[in-house]
Amino acid sequence: MIFGALEAGGTKMVCALGREDGTILEQVSIPTTTPKETIPLVVKYFRGKEIGALGIGSFGPVDVNQSSDTYGHILDTPKTAWKYFDLVGSIQKELSIPIGLDTDVNGSCLGEMTFGNSKGLDSVIYITIGTGVGVGASINGKLLHGMLHPEAGHILLKKHPKDTFDGNCPYHGTCLEGMASGPAIEKRWGKKAVELKDNDIVWEIEAYYIAQALMNYILTLAPRRIILGGGVMHQMQLFPLIRKEVERLLNGYLNTKEIKDMDHYIIPASLNDNQGIMGCIQLAKIALDEVK
Amino acid sequence: MIFGALEAGGTKMVCALGREDGTILEQVSIPTTTPKETIPLVVKYFRGKEIGALGIGSFGPVDVNQSSDTYGHILDTPKTAWKYFDLVGSIQKELSIPIGLDTDVNGSCLGEMTFGNSKGLDSVIYITIGTGVGVGASINGKLLHGMLHPEAGHILLKKHPKDTFDGNCPYHGTCLEGMASGPAIEKRWGKKAVELKDNDIVWEIEAYYIAQALMNYILTLAPRRIILGGGVMHQMQLFPLIRKEVERLLNGYLNTKEIKDMDHYIIPASLNDNQGIMGCIQLAKIALDEVK
Ligand SMILES: Nc1ncnc2c1ncn2[C@@H]1O[C@H](COP(=O)(O)OP(=O)(O)O)[C@@H](O)[C@H]1O
Ligand SMILES: Nc1ncnc2c1ncn2[C@@H]1O[C@H](COP(=O)(O)OP(=O)(O)O)[C@@H](O)[C@H]1O
Ligand SMILES: [Zn+2]
Ligand SMILES: [Zn+2]
């Protein structure tokens, strides 16, 4: 059985074909412009490929509540062309196959839990630090949904005493995304994150914000493991800095075996930046199992 | 069928008998001293009462993971006499009935979801602001467990610009509990919270911290409803202040129908401070159903 996988992002749509074991057979990328232009190209790619189901990991906010009237629609987004667009419906109408949907970051979380470094764990969070900051979570073995899905890239933080940057989140200024995303780093220092590799204070400040957020997620979600992915996390020197700062902030408060083994508690994504698309394969598989 | 309910707190053990519909038939309070003194009194109370099961809502941290070796034990707590004490085991040995266990705040959350203001919702959080600050949560219809249970009373916050208090959490200083618990209010202002009723700045600062925490919980847990209980929340003037501050902080970011109806989104506990003990009745019922 071949599954279709669609990572629907704000700048591009990654379309792939894959097998149940996570193998990616082929992959193409289509620019995200307007639904009118982009969706027909996506549909054209999958048509005739004999996929058994399609899994979509979408940018948000998106309605992932299956019992809602607007299930599968993009919600109130600054990408105005996509606002309230019926993403799942418009594809299902053309392809007539089961479609699974979640957020891109819940998808990545699922990818790591199914094929990657967190197999067998019931409670995991996945955080991407890239153009934006997104958080996916699985709690009691189920991807976290509720009123909506996590939007925890926007939690509020204390400012680093040496940081004079005012943040670049249009909604909250100094939220996590406003302080720690790739574009925030670039705006604060006037250079791309990748060019700042050897500048220690950049990563001290970056680790300070990420660690504060992790501390709050740990206390709120009680994950058994935390996975950090996205472009900025390719700076591997961040990991020891973040771990140390989380320990400093917790200050002995949580004494679990997981926390005591910090090097295996806060870890990098393990699937070569394919965790998202592999998660979509698994979303497709689950969607097919559900209709069987 | 009569159920036993035990709210195990740091200063007192509330023992009660109740019916499946949440009716409390009788209730006594036993001071919490040492396990050696306190547990026999608790056992003595329930013995011979012909209860079908017992539900315990305990102070934390406590091991609520049923597949763990130390399930039912108190974990690393500053109350040294109780550190690593086998709470469930020591009672079960004497009473030989099914015992359900969760944290006191998860218990309160369950109480409100079963008998109170949040019936039928799958995703609810309950926060108590009292001697400490505790958070219980139900996600996808199940009480939140993972590595541990939520300890979200200790999340980190930005300081109010007019606040010179350094916080009184021995672990984190200015975490939510350190800034907003009853004792924090008393230490900051030199008077008990209840005596400060007419002092506006007290409640402005209090609402500022609570709202910041709620903003982070909303973005992380995506609850469909937020219930605020505990002694401090008897100051009902806090509710409009908190709602307004949450709206200011979110700044239009989440546009759900729940958020648009703020007066029904952030609400007081509804069970006359019996949400905890009524939740224990439900924990007992669930424990009995599980062995059936
Ligand atoms: N190796 C790297 N080191 C530091 N930052 C990087 C690196 N690669 C990409 N970035 C930053 O990450 C952001 C892009 O994130 P990425 O996860 O690749 O994509 P997106 O979030 O758009 O899906 C950009 O701001 C970029 O500057
Ligand atoms: N009506 C009230 N107004 C303001 N604060 C109160 C009120 N009643 C109790 N408190 C404060 O709440 C704290 C006790 O919280 P409570 O929820 O009653 O118990 P606990 O948290 O110990 O279970 C104390 O610090 C007390 O000062
Ligand atoms: Zn933001
Ligand atoms: Zn604290």
Automatic annotation (TrEMBL), chains A, B:
Catalyzed chemical reaction(s): D-fructose + ATP = D-fructose 6-phosphate + ADP + H(+)
Pfam family, one: ROK
EC class of the enzyme, as a word: transferase
Keyword annotations of the record: ATP-binding, Carbohydrate metabolism, Kinase, Magnesium, Metal-binding, Nucleotide-binding, Transferase, Zinc
PROSITE patterns: ROK
Cofactor(s) it depends on: Mg(2+)
EC number, as in UniProt: 2.7.1.4
GO molecular function, a single term: fructokinase activity
Gene3D superfamilies linked to this entry: 3.30.420.40
Family: Belongs to the ROK (NagC/XylR) family.
Full protein name: fructokinase
